[in-house]
Write a structure and sequence with these properties.
Helix content is 33%, strand content 25%. The protein has 19 helices and 27 strands. The strands form 6 sheets. A 7-stranded mixed β-sheet has the order 2-6-5-3-4-9-8, with helices on both faces. The chain binds 1,6-di-O-phosphono-alpha-D-glucopyranose (G16).
C-alpha cells in the first residue's frame, strides 16, 4: 500500500473554537478541508513513530467518511495503532476514558456536540491529549498556525476498514483495533457509584426517564440503566443514535429537550428526568416539576459527594467556568477547599485536575464532571444524582431547596441571542468595553456597580494567560451580569448574557428565576444597548 503525498492550499478559517473546529458539514466536505486540519494536528503534536491514537465520534452524518480518512492519514503519518469505537462511535467522555485506560498518545474526537447534524447540519473535530482532555490553547494555537501554512498531507492508498465488529485489521503497518467502549465506560461508572443502592431505588418504584435524544449516549444508557441497574423498559427514550439525531437539536436544555420537560411537568410525572447531548458530555437534571440549573447541580454534587463511593474521601477542590454561578464557591468555602474560576471551555480544567488541585468541575452550559476522565460527562452526572437520591431518599426538589436554605440561592439564568450578524454582536461587546470607566460606582436600579472588566485568567499550574474571556459587570452585593460571544456556533454570532443574583432570604427562594432576575435583565439590556445594536427584542433561548 502506497503513501500518497497530496499537494494542498491552506484554508484560513481553521481556528479551533471553545472546543475544537466546528463547521457546517458542507465546509468539511470541501476537497482537502478535513485532511488539511488532520495533517495540521499530526504536524503539531509530535507523536513518536508507532504511537497509539484513540479515534471515534458522536455518529453524526459524515462521521464514517471522516473516520476512514483519518485512519488512512494516521497510517501514512507513522502511527502504530488506532483504537476505534465500534462503528466509529465514541461518546466524548468514553473517548477520554479510552485514552486514559489504554494510555494512548492522544485521541481525535469527531463531534459538533449539541449542534444539529445531517447533511445540512454541523460537524466538528478536536484533538485530546494523553491525559484524556481537550488539547490546551498552546496546542490548538499551534494547530491553527500550521493550518495556515500547510502545503501537503499524507494519506495511505488503501480500501476502507471494517468498523462494525470488534476485532483487528492491519492498515499498511498500522493496527486498527475496533473496541467495545460501552463496556469500558460502563465499567468505569460501576467503579465510582453505588450500583446496588441505585438498583434498589429503581426496584422500589422510583421512576426515571433518560432522553438520549437519538444521540451517542443511547447504547451507553441502555447498558447502564437497563442492563446493569434494572431500570424498567421505557426508562431510556430515543435510545437509537441517528446520523441526524432524528432531525432534532440534541441539546439537553429546557428548550430543546421539550418532550422530556413535558413528561416531567405533566400528570404522572416520573421522579427523575435527565438528558444528554449529541456527544454525551452534557447533562440536564430534572425532578418532578423541577429544573436543576447546571450551576446548582455542581454545588449539590459537591455538597453531597461523600455519599458516593468514588468520592467518599472528599473533594480536593472545585473549578467552575467564570459565567457559572458562584453556588459551588459557597460549598467550597463551607468545606474549606479551594474553588477556581476559569474561562469557558473544559480544556481549562485539565491542568487543575492533573495537578490534583480539583476533583469536581462544572459549567453553566450543562457540563459537570470530575477527575475520573478529562471531559465533562453527561451520564456520570446522571448517575451522581441517582446515587445521591438513593442515599438521601428525598425528592430532587427537596434536596435542592434544603441546599438553598443552607447556602442561600444563587438565582441564575442565561439568555442567548443566536444567529446575530457577527459585526452587530461584536459591536455590543465593543460598546460595553467602552463603558467600563463610566459604569464604575454607578447605581442601576437596586444595584451598584462594583467594577467591570474583560475576564482574564492566569493558569495557576503553567502560568499561561488567556485574555478577553467575557465582559463582567459585578455589583457590590455579588450579583453579576456577564456578556460573552459563544465559541461553538457555526452561523453568525451567538451573544450570551449570563445573569446571577444572590438570594439569602428563603421566603423568596420559590420565585421563578426570570421574575427574580427581572431587574438585572432590564439593566443588561439598557447597558448593552443590545436591542438597538443587534435588532432583537428577545433572546432565542433562555436557560
Ligand atoms: C463546549 C465546551 C464547554 C463550553 C461550551 C459552551 O461544550 O466544551 O466548555 O462551556 O462549549 O461554549 P460557548 O459558550 O463558547 O458556546 P460542548 O458540549 O459544545 O463541547
Amino acid at each position: 500500500m502506497n503513501v500518497r503525498i497530496i499537494s494542498t492550499q491552506p484554508f484560513l478559517d481553521q481556528k479551533p473554537g471553545t472546543s475544537g473546529l466546528r463547521k457546517k458539514v458542507a465546509v468539511f466536505r470541501q476537497p482537502h478541508y478535513l485532511e488539511n486540519f488532520v495533517q495540521s494536528i499530526f504536524d503539531s503534536i509530535a507523536a513518536p513513530q508507532g504511537a497509539t491514537l484513540a479515534l471515534g465520534g458522536d455518529g453524526r452524518y459524515y462521521n464514517r467518511t471522516a473516520i476512514q480518512i483519518i485512519l488512512k492519514m494516521a497510517a501514512a503519518n507513522g502511527f502504530g495503532r488506532v483504537l476505534v469505537g465500534k462503528g466509529g462511535i465514541l461518546s466524548t467522555p468514553a473517548a477520554s476514558c479510552v485514552i486514559r485506560k489504554y494510555q494512548t498518545f492522544g485521541g481525535i474526537i469527531l463531534s459538533a456536540s449539541h449542534n444539529p447534524g445531517g447533511p445540512d447540519g454541523d460537524f466538528g473535530i478536536k484533538f485530546n491529549s494523553g491525559n484524556g482532555g481537550p488539547a490546551t490553547e498552546t496546542v490548538t494555537e499551534a494547530i491553527f498556525a500550521r493550518s495556515k501554512a500547510i502545503g501537503e498531507y499524507r494519506i495511505l492508498d488503501a480500501p476502507d476498514v471494517a468498523l462494525d465488529e470488534i476485532g483487528e485489521t492491519m492498515l499498511g503497518a498500522m493496527r486498527v483495533q475496533v473496541i467495545d467502549a460501552v463496556s469500558d465506560y460502563a465499567g468505569l461508572m460501576e467503579s465510582l457509584f453505588d450500583f446496588a443502592a441505585i438498583r434498589n431505588l429503581l426496584a422500589g418504584g422510583f421512576q426515571m426517564k433518560f432522553d438520549a435524544m437519538h444521540a451517542v449516549t443511547g447504547p451507553y444508557a441502555q447498558e447502564i440503566f437497563t442492563n446493569r441497574l434494572g431500570a424498567p423498559a421505557g426508562s431510556v427514550a430515543n435510545a437509537v443514535p441517528l446520523e441526524d439525531f432524528g432531525g432534532g437539536h440534541p441539546d439537553p436544555n429546557l428548550t430543546y429537550a421539550h418532550d422530556l420537560v413535558e413528561a416531567l411537568y405533566g400528570a404522572d410525572a416520573p421522579d427523575f428526568g435527565a438528558a444528554s447531548d449529541g456527544d454525551g458530555d452534557r447533562n440536564m437534571i430534572l425532578g418532578r416539576r423541577f429544573f436543576v440549573t447546571p450551576s446548582d447541580s455542581l454545588a449539590v454534587i459537591a455538597a453531597n459527594a461523600t455519599l458516593v463511593p468514588g468520592y467518599r474521601k472528599g473533594v480536593a477542590g472545585i473549578a467552575r467556568s467564570m459565567p457559572t454561578s458562584a453556588a459551588a464557591d459557597r460549598v467550597a468555602q463551607a468545606l474549606n477547599i479551594p474553588c477556581f474560576e476559569t474561562p469557558t471551555g473544559w480544556k481549562f480544567f485539565g491542568n487543575l485536575m492533573d495537578a490534583g488541585k480539583v476533583t469536581l468541575c462544572g459549567e453553566e452550559s450543562f457540563g459537570t464532571g470530575s477527575d475520573h476522565v478529562r471531559e465533562k460527562d453527561g451520564l456520570w452526572a446522571v448517575l451522581f444524582w441517582l446515587n445521591i437520591l438513593a442515599a438521601r431518599k428525598q425528592s430532587v426538589e427537596s434536596i435542592v431547596r434544603e441546599h438553598w436554605a443552607k447556602y442561600g440561592r444563587n438565582v441564575y439564568s442565561r439568555h442567548d441571542y443566536e444567529g446575530l450578524p457577527t459585526e452587530a454582536a461584536q459591536g455590543v461587546i465593543q460598546h460595553l468595553k467602552g463603558c467600563f470607566t463610566d459604569l464604575a460606582g454607578v447605581r442601576l436600579g437596586q444595584y451598584t456597580v462594583k467594577f467591570c472588566d474583560d475576564f482574564s485568567y492566569t493558569d495557576p499550574v503553567d502560568g499561561s494567560v488567556s485574555k478577553g474571556q467575557g465582559i463582567r459587570i459585578i455589583f457590590t452585593d455579588g450579583s453579576r451580569i456577564v456578556f460573552r460571544l459563544s465559541g461553538t456556533g457555526t452561523e453568525g454570532a451567538t451573544l450570551r448574557v449570563y445573569l446571577e443574583a444572590y438570594e439569602a432570604d428563603t421566603s423568596r427562594h420559590h420565585l421563578d428565576a426570570q421574575v427574580a432576575l427581572a431587574d438585572l435583565i432590564r439593566i443588561a439590556l439598557q447597558v448593552s444597548e443590545l436591542e438597538l445594536r443587534a435588532g432583537r427584542d428577545k433572546p432565542t433561548v433562555i436557560t
